[in-house]
Design brief:
Layout: H1 8-17, E1 23-25, E2 44-46, H2 51-64, E3 68-71, E4 90-93, E5 100-104, E6 109-113, H3 118-127, E7 130-131, H4 144-149, H5 157-160, E8 167-173, E9 179-182, H6 195-199, E10 208-215, E11 217-218, E12 222-230, H7 233-247, E13 251-258, H8 259-268, E14 282-290, H9 296-309, E15 313-318, H10 322-342, E16 346-351, H11 357-371, E17 375-381, E18 386-392, H12 406-419, H13 435-441, H14 444-457
Parallel strand pairs: 2-4, 3-4
Antiparallel strand pairs: 1-2, 5-6, 6-10, 7-11, 8-9, 8-10, 12-14, 12-15, 13-14, 16-18, 17-18
Helix pairs in contact: 1-2, 8-10, 11-12
Length: 479
């Protein structure tokens, strides 16, 4: 399907139906993505203030066959928020749809517009003594619409699930400009196809999410945090099993950290306080959310002692106050920033079955070593099988020195993931970065159904063209 550029004539038609305040020149932040792999084109930027204005914009774009790139917080890591080539698109920023419309504490529901920053959703929930558990490193700038569009994961998936599991209903604008009023607060609703789950994770390719009804939870009465040095990834999994036996579903987070992460912090972010005098090869950050009758420090001490006797852990620190808890989490949250400053050769957001994690780490290291001399920072949400397996230059070199090896590294990691029954995109989505990977590793029946859905819902191909699925008529070497 051939698209047209968002040219002056198109903008003139839009301005006839919308106030001038909706439009603004697209500065650099709308044309960049965090890893610097893609650069967007100078394009028409629209910043609607409500769902009706979104509908007008989409209706005009569909009629003119102009591509639309939805834009949230710009924090995505797979290039879904920028269009590097083809006809100049309209960038549709949701940042002005930034109201928390309603909170229903007794129902554990919060209704927020798509442009509300994730941290502000969390704060709004806290203000009524509730918890919105979606948490990730970019929560200070990521917006809830983008979190839902990418089905974001984060550190709380182990206990609370992905963004998909935290959403009851949506308001959205479909590619023909119709407004779908699906902003239900119902927990049971079996009336036909669930468009909510079709739009969540679609990365803006099937419509624009404008608001969401989100699930809230009771705040844990008490919480506890510990950083434990473990013998190996296999020991970390045994520790997780032990924690679940002792504490059930009160384990809120379970994060695996490799020594390389600590070393990168020392190298580029020396102000981040390091907890161990000598960084362990592997460690686990564990957080508990407990009922009122259980002492978190006592629960963690019992877990530590049991794990020590079993030979799973060699050292550990239990947070004694909120500052120590914050310090422990700051380490985990700043590792991605340290990675960015070092500059990866190839980064991989993957998942494998829990039991396969130790073998994956061992085999991947061997495969990468066969390709050259690299540093590997493997860390992530091991409680749900999601690892961030990132490959870096050795000291004295930069990622540009290894650019010729990047595709081979990615192929080696993703082939291994596929062989182990895993996913080459655990929580960051497909975007534009992994379109070819989805074609290589995706199930043919699923891909065929996805293409049929895209063609039916968005026949003109205007919604985030080239993201998730290759544009109709494109071939891998041409687009």
């Amino acid at each position: 399907m051939t698209l047209n550029p968002a040219d002056t004539a198109f903008e003139t038609r839009l301005r006839a139906d919308l106030p001038d305040a909706v439009f603004r020149p697209a500065d650099d932040r709308y044309l960049e993505e965090p890893r610097g792999r893609y650069a967007g084109q100078a394009a028409l930027l629209a910043l609607p203030r409500n769902v009706q204005e979104v509908a007008i914009l989409i209706r005009h774009a569909n009629a003119a066959r102009v591509g639309v790139v939805p834009y949230g917080g710009g924090t995505g890591l797979v290039g879904g928020q920028v269009l590097p080539d083809g006809p100049a698109p309209m960038i549709l920023s949701l940042e002005r749809l930034n109201k928390v419309r309603a909170i229903y504490p007794d129902e554990n529901v919060l209704v927020a517009e798509a442009g509300v920053i994730l941290a502000d959703v969390q704060t709004a929930a806290q203000d009524v003594d509730r918890l919105f558990p979606l948490s990730l490193a970019a929560e200070g700038s990521a917006r809830i619409g983008g979190n839902l569009a990418t089905n974001a994961g984060g550190t709380g998936v182990l206990r609370y699930g992905n963004a998909r599991d935290l959403c009851l209903g949506l308001e959205a604008v479909l590619p023909d400009g119709q407004i779908w009023q699906g902003l239900t607060r119902l927990r049971k609703n079996n009336t036909g196809y669930d468009l909510r789950h079709l739009l969540i994770g679609a990365e803006g390719t099937l419509g624009v999410i404008t608001a969401a009804a989100l699930k809230l939870f009771a705040q844990p009465a008490r919480s506890g945090t510990a950083l434990l040095a473990v013998q190996s990834p296999a020991a970390a999994l045994q520790l997780l099993s032990m924690a679940r036996v002792q504490l059930g579903e009160m384990v809120s987070a379970f994060e695996l950290i490799h020594r390389q992460g600590f070393d990168f912090l020392t190298e580029v972010l020396p102000d981040v306080r390091q907890p161990f005098a000598s960084s362990p090869e592997w460690s686990v950050l564990i957080e508990l959310g407990l009922s009122g009758g259980i002492d978190p420090a006592g629960a963690l001490e019992t877990l530590f002692a049991t794990a020590m006797n079993a030979g799973l852990v060699t050292d550990g620190l239990i947070a004694q106050n909120q500052q120590q808890t914050a310090d422990f989490w700051r380490i985990r949250e700043m590792i991605p920033e340290a990675n960015r400053l070092i500059g990866s050769v190839s980064s991989h957001d993957i998942s494998v079955p829990l039991g396969a994690i130790p073998d994956f780490i061992a085999q991947a290291e061997s495969k990468i070593a066969a390709l050259g001399d690299f540093r590997i920072n493997c860390f992530g949400h091991v409680g749900d099988g999601n690892l961030h397996y990132n490959v870096f230059p050795v000291p004295g070199k930069t990622r540009t020195d290894y650019e010729h090896l990047r595709d081979g590294i990615k192929r080696a990691v993703h082939d291994l993931v596929h062989e182990m029954g895993g996913s080459i995109s655990a929580e960051h989505g497909i975007g534009r970065l992994k379109v070819g990977d989805l074609e290589r590793y995706g199930n043919p029946a699923k891909l065929s159904a996805m293409r049929a859905i895209k063609a039916a819902v968005d026949p003109n191909g205007i919604m985030n063209p080239g993201a998730v699925l290759r544009e109709i008529g494109c071939h891998e070497m041409e687009c």
